[in-house]
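Notes from the 1:1 (GR / supervisor)

We went over the backlog. Supervisor wanted to see one worked example end to end before approving the batch request, so GR pasted a single chain during the call. The sequence is below; no edits were made to it. Supervisor asked that the structure be written out right there so they could see what the output format looks like.
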Amino acid sequence: MTPLKFGLIGAGAIAQTHVQAFEHTELATLVGIADIRPEAAKALAESATCDHFNAYETMAEQCDLDAVIICTPPTTHPEIALYFLNRGVHVLCEKPFSIDVESAREMTAAAEQNGVLITMASKFRYVEDTIKAKSIVQSGILGDIVLFENAFTGRVAMGNRWNADPAVSGGGVLIDNGTHSVDIMRYFLGPLAEVQVVEGKRIQGLPVEDTVRIFVKSTQGVMGNIDLSWSINKELDYFVRIYGADGTVSIGWKESKYRQHSSRDWVVFGDGYSKVKAFTNQLNNVVRAIRQEEPLLITAADAIASVEVISAAYESLHQSHWTQIAHLSDRLQNQPSLIGAGA
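Structure output shown during the call:
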């Protein structure tokens, strides 16, 4: 089949990995890159052998686009997404999907109204070991799930990065890395009920949080513990560990494994995290969903839910108490037109 034609908005660091994904698929081709920094768009477009533009509107007018990938700062996501959705173009939007629930709902409503697909980019959901681990959990061999643990911690100097500018990012490490965390937790445990966030000491002198610990309860009573930091590295060999009454599963950076309590030995089931492979899996899933060949792994309802949980998390952070999470997104699960049915 003819590859779908994609445009890329934003030529920063994450956009470079998206470009690499196009090199590993025959389902899609990149035809244009737009960035308000012409030199950045030109440099990335040269490596991708495609056209470059200094405005996404110009790219939309001059390219015949099936879909776009939005890789700009979070506060710009709604404006750009709505522009393309209203032109009948499918949208893959980098996380965080939006910095507020109202905009997230507006984006998904526009996708429904225009008969196109919208989804959130969240690379860890497309790691093959993550998908295998869910099958292990669902098989029941670990027993009832009791505790979910996740950590995304690493020393990164954030002083000169937009991710630490609340005017464009919407917050700090909580919205930046935490969006991945809550999306993965919902993937394994279903809807989340309550959240409490505690901020650690600010090491980098940023206007936003650089270290937080998140406590979460799912609607099924499973506890979650999430550590996020730009200032420390916990040096763990895994990023997700799930404890059941009868066993444990660990999703690692270089190896994934599980062990039942009745056995002394761990069973290895995966080779860990590959960033480019995850991005390629994501791109292929979006194309096949547009063609109605398979469902989206991350639906519009999932995207809204991520924003709802992060919004509740910030409320908890500011008020220092457990905060209930809204559940509009979970009601949307019963409305296929709002959860990424391809056009």
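Supervisor's comment: The two ends are 16 Å apart (CA to CA).
Batch request approved.
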